[in-house]
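Everyone, carefully examine this protein record:
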Amino acid sequence: MIDGVIVGLTFLFGFGNVLAFGLRLGVSGWVAPLVAPASDLSVLALLIAIRQLSLRGAPAEVIRPARRLLLIPSVATAALNVAKPLVAGEIGRGCSMRSARLGAVIG
């Protein structure tokens, strides 16, 4: 239960950051909410797929490409979440936001 709450709040946190950044860049109000969850949902889908492959006993040769692919949306998500504070010149805030999000996902 608590894990679900943490994942949900983390998703909302990322959604808000990317939405605000998109709107600041001048992305249409109709497009920004569609783009915002794309990287988070990609990460979630890959995590679920890797877990299912592991549970079904898939060999490492099958799981390894999915784990490599997981790096791309993970880096994109991290970059999008800290982009707004970094563009605004708030480097400390951007770094602390990423650390908080990473802590929520790992912890």
Notes: The helical segments are 2-24, 32-35, 38-55, 60-87, 91-106.
